[in-house]
Amino acid sequence: MKDVLDELAAVRRAMGNGRVPAGEAYTVELRRRYDAEIDDVWDAITSPERLRRWLKPVTGDLRLGGKFELDSGEHGDILRCEPPRLLKVSWLYGPDADAWPGTSEVEVRLVPGPVGDTELELIHAAFIGEPSFPTYGPGAGGVGWDLALLTLARLLADGEIADHEEFEKSPEGREFSRRSAAAWGQAHLAAGGEPEHVAAAVEATTRFYAPDPA
Question: What is the pTM of this model?
Answer without folding.
Answer: 0.95
